[in-house]
Structures are given as C-alpha cells and as structure tokens.
Amino acid sequence: MSVTLDDVRAAAARLEGVVHETPVLTSSYYDDRLGMRCFFKCENLQKVGAFKFRGASNAVLQLSEEDAANGVVTHSSGNHAQALALAAEQRGIPAWIVMPTDAPSVKRAAVKGYGATVVPCAPTLASREATAERVMHETGATFIHPYDDDRIIAGAGTAALELMETVIGLDAVITPVGGGGLLSGTCIAVHGLDPEVMVLAAEPELADDAARSLEAGELIPAGPTTTIADGLKTSLSARTFAILQQHVHEIVTVTEDAIREHMRTVWERMKIIIEPSCATVLAALEKRRSAYAGSSVGVIISGGNVDLDNLPW
Amino acid sequence: MSVTLDDVRAAAARLEGVVHETPVLTSSYYDDRLGMRCFFKCENLQKVGAFKFRGASNAVLQLSEEDAANGVVTHSSGNHAQALALAAEQRGIPAWIVMPTDAPSVKRAAVKGYGATVVPCAPTLASREATAERVMHETGATFIHPYDDDRIIAGAGTAALELMETVIGLDAVITPVGGGGLLSGTCIAVHGLDPEVMVLAAEPELADDAARSLEAGELIPAGPTTTIADGLKTSLSARTFAILQQHVHEIVTVTEDAIREHMRTVWERMKIIIEPSCATVLAALEKRRSAYAGSSVGVIISGGNVDLDNLPW
Which of A82, A95, A111, A280 is the most buried (most CB within 10 A)? Predict the structure, then answer.
C-alpha cells in the first residue's frame, strides 16, 4: 500500500496550523545565473529549521491515544531528531532520541530543549538500532523512522503540495536526496497534481548511492563518505527506492566545491541560511543549465541547521 | 509639505512588481523569550538585501524623463548605495555612487555589479559632499539623499504598510533608527492606518543621538561611534526629527553585547541573515519585556548585508 496524493492532502489538512506555511522566494541573481526562473520553497524557515518537522508531526498526530501515551523513539543525530522531539512535545507525549555519544553537544542540547530524552549509544548503526530496540521494549514507545515510513513521506510531500498550489506552471521540481523521504513525498505530490512536471534530484558525488541505484536498477547502499552535505549520507530504503524508480526524471551529482560555493552564495545573495545539503540543488541546476534553460523550477530548500562556529569557508 | 499616508500608498502602487512583497515570519522561540507575539517583516529578503530599495526605487521612478536621462548620484557606502544603483539600472539610467577610498572592496564591487559608476573620495563627510556636488555639476545628475527626502521616506513606509495590511491587530511596530528614514516612513504608514498603534525604535547605546534628540527636544547630531550596527551611525535630519517627535512612543537604547547576541540568535533560530542594525530591535524588545508583555508587535527586519568573512562572534 503505497503513498498517494490523497495521503499528502490528508497530511496537509492535519498539519494546518501545526507547521509554518513557508514562503516561496525568488532571486533575480539566481534566475540570471542559471537561465531559469526559480521558486525557492523555504523549508529552512520551517519549525526546527527543516522540512523534517512536517513528516514527524504527520506521524505523531496519527498515533492512537493509547500508542501516543507510550511516546515515540527514533535514532538520529540530524534534523529528524529535533523534528520528532518537537512534534512529541506539541502532542504532549514523551520522546526518546537515541544519539551517538560523539554527536555534537549543540544537537543534544537542541533535542533536550524540546523536552525529549537523549539516550546515548555507541557511534555505530548496530548500537543505534539495538539501543532504540531496547527503548521500545522498555517503554512501549513507537519507533518513527526518519524516512522509511509512509506517514513521514506523506508529510514531507506537503512542502511540494504547497509550492505547486502557490506557483502555477512549474516545469520541474528539484530536491536533494539522502534517504529519499523528501524526494519520495515530492514525487507523489507533484505527479499526483501534474504528471508532466519533471521531478529532479541532487546528490553529492561523494554520496551518489541514489544516482547509482537508479542507474543500476537495484538499491545500492551508501558507503562511508566525507561529504559536507551531512543530511545526505543515508541510504535509500526499498520503499523510497521504488517510488524514485517510478517518478524521478534525473539525479544530478555535484562536487563538494560546488556545494560550498552555492551555500555561501545563497547566504550572501538571498540572506537565508541553508545547510550544505540544500546547496546541492543549485549546484545541480547549474551543472544542467543547458538542459533546463528557460524552465520554471520549484526548488525545495530543505533545511538551515548549521554550526555557525564551523562554516565551510 | 510633509509625507502623508497617501504618499505611502502611492509609493506602494508605484513599487508593485518592482520590489519584493517580503514575507512576514513568526518564531515561537522569540515569542516565548520576549513574552510577546512578534511578526517579522523581512526586508533583509528585499532586493539588494535591505528596505532601502523601496525608497530608492520610489525616488528614481518619480524623476521626469528629462531628469532621469541625466542619472542620479549619491554618497553612501551602505545599503542605499546598492539600492540606488539597482533602481537606476532598472530604469535604465546612469548612477554615480560617491564612496570613500577606504570602503570595503566588496561594497564597491556590489555597486559596480548593478552597473553604477563608483566615484572615489576621501573618507570625510566634506569630501563626500564636495565630490557629489562635482558629479552633479558635471553630469546634471539628480542627488538622492539616503533618508532626508520625502520620496525615500514614503518608499520606506511601504514595508510597514504591507505589514499592517497582512497582520491585523498589532499593538506596536518597531524599527531601528539611524538617519530616521525607515522610522519616519513607518510612523506615517502606521499612524495613517491606526493612530492607536505604538511606534517604537531601537538604537545602539553607542549611537544614541536619536534617543537624546527626542529627550532634549532638539536635534543632536551623531558623533563618532564604534558600534557594530554600521547602518545606524548617521544623524537625524530636521525632516526626520520632526516626524519622530510627533509620532514615536519610545526609543530604546541597547548594548553591543545584546546586539551581537540577538544577531546570532536570529541566524540560529530563524535561519535568516540579519545585519547588526536589525538585531537592535530584538534587544530593545527584550530590554522592555515587561512594558510590552502580551503585545502583538510588528518587527521591521531592515537588512541582511554582512561580510561573511568578518562575523562578530
């Protein structure tokens, strides 16, 4: 049973008044530079600074009263951790966030700031999963995966839904791709509304597992990577891979230098803070400038969580 | 003949499609911290990254064909320089920007990027004024002052006009004050629409000439200052002082530490880039937390032009 446009619409109704309806910005600088007309859907201005709050809220709000009372658990040191913590706080239920002991203290503090309990684990996937299992067993909390979950995907798709309803006549919509939750939700929303609109994705060359998976026709897991786009290190799941295979027109891979340059340029020219993962989409559009020349492109700006004391320039 | 609400409305009509209608953001973090409901009118997301583009465009668009053909001139190393350069470029007329030889090269480059001619001068007010005079004499260009001009004030007021039309039921509106152009335009717009809404202003303690002028009942010029709020170093003019005397409820002065802290906090929590001048308004609201507790406050975020290689933390 796959996610449909109706699920995305239901999520949008559920999230009304819960999430920010984020603004859509334009930039003559980028329009000139890319030779396209770009519409930036600013999920960096979403609560917790990332689109992740949409999916997390959509999942938490669908729990039965009984399940909700036992709380939620996830393992993440990224934006999903904060998103789930805030979604749980807003429903008034407990949240346990399993985080590796080497996670930055600022991230632990943010999660605690939303009232969640941080559960430390060793910095390995095995330890993360085992620790989350233990929390589920001990507390009865429901595990909420960062992207391999229909409710998360439908929630993530509401950003593209809002964008498509705000800007009429888009030729394409582009998002970054890590685990594929945002991209999957975008596919469902965009093609549910208009199958003619191309769905594009951007990925670092150093973490190009999604591009390689689509090319190979089989899911290739992500290996270790040093990309600065820390939100895009995760592997697709079978669920997201199946949706991407059906809907994605092209995944464009981009260099670290291009990510860094566009991140800084967006800060300088658009006055919004974007994290490295977001900058991939602009690098991708520039790389494929001639292919999409003259197009109207919806650009999902996925998040703005960065450490201001460690900027990549 | 003073600026009226009709002038602001005429400016808004003139600027439609020329300026960005900037978004109004909210932040639960700041609402909680300040104990108010804040509505951030994001002029940092305006073209050239500052509200200044509204006034500059409003002035340039009102020039007769004959005057326009001779171009415009100003002396500024701040946001007005870029704003006037872009406004002139958009009308297709020449612009000369007098800038001191010690102005940062990035600012010169920005002005040149909009097609204006940078005219160097010695770093003194006398040299700036004499150089601008010479350019006017040689070219016939019209001098456009950064704030001592009714067209600039009316244009600046359109930000508050949009805000008041978007958010119903504000108790107060706050802006920073330097030369008083933004604050004057805000006074006219806000009190033209609703005389009951309080107009507040924020100023660095290190550049508190506007606060002292209001208190003394006479215009006290700004002295030299080391405030990091570089947009707020200028003195009021007789024109802006008269408007402030009539309309401003309170000018709150704030410390450099508070400016620095709020600047960084807005970057971290709201994911938008604001310059130090903007941060004064949040520091002011926090200082006067108890006086305005429970209020709905419109906050004009005036600009976002900062040097990313020289951040104040």
Answer: A280
- The DSSP letter of residue A305 is -
CB contact under 8 A, B23 and A28: no
Of A25, A269, A272, the CB nearest to B271: A272
Place of tokens 């030889």: B101
A39, A297 Cβ separation under 8 angstroms: yes
**Which chain B residues have a beta carbon less than 8 Å from that of A273?**
267, 271-273
A77 is catalytic: yes
Crossing angle (nearest 10°) for helices A79-91 and A105-113: 20
Tell me if domain A5-51+149-301 and domain A53-143 are identical in fold.
yes
> Edge to edge, what strands does the sheet with A248-254 contain?
A24-25, A37-42, A296-301, A172-176, A198-204, A248-254
Kindly identify which residue of chain A lies nearest to residue B270, measuring between CA atoms.
A45
Q: What is the pLDDT of residue A16?
A: 98
Please name the residue that has the structure tokens 């300088």.
Answer: A268
* Facing A271 at nearest CB: one of B45, B309, B313: B45
Output the CA torsion sign for A55, A60, A64, A70.
Answer: positive
Model pTM score: 0.96
Which CATH number is correct for B53-143, 3.40.50.880, 3.30.420.270, 3.40.50.1100, 3.60.21.10?
3.40.50.1100
* Residue B302 designated active-site: no
Q: Which amino acid is at A136?
A: M
Candidates A33, A4, A13; CA nearest to A162 is A13
DSSP B1-27: ----HHHHHHHHHHHTTTS----EE--
In degrees, rounded to 5, the angle at the alpha carbon of residue A45 between the alpha carbons of residues A40 and A50 is 95
Write out chain A residues lying below 8 Å of B270, CB-based: 45
CATH code at B5-51+149-301: 3.40.50.1100
**Which amino acid is it at B148?**
D
Taking only the tens place, the pLDDT of each residue in A160-192 is 999 999 999 999 999 999 999 999 999 999 999
Residues of A in contact with B271 (CB under 8 A): 44-45, 49, 272-274, 304-305
Question: DSSP secondary-structure letter at A274?
Answer: -
Reduce the secondary structure of A69-129 to three states and give it as a string: HCCEEEECCCHHHHHHHHHHHHHCCCEEEEEECCCCHHHHHHHHHCCCEEEEECCCHHHHH
For chain B, the domains span: 5-51+149-301, 53-143
Q: Quick check: A274 and A225 in contact, CB under 8 A? A: no
Torsion of CA A63, A64, A66, A68, to 10 degrees: 20
| Pairing verdict, β A37-42 and A24-25 | antiparallel
Residue A48, CA distances (Å) to A136, A310, B87 in order:
25, 19, 36
Give B200-265 as a 3 state SS string: EEEEEHHHCHHHHHHHHCCCCCCCCCCCCCHHHCCCCCHHHHHHHHHHEEEEEEECHHHHHHHHHH
3-class DSSP state of A172? strand
Enter the ipTM.
0.94
- Please state the separation of Cα A14 from the chain's center in Å: 19
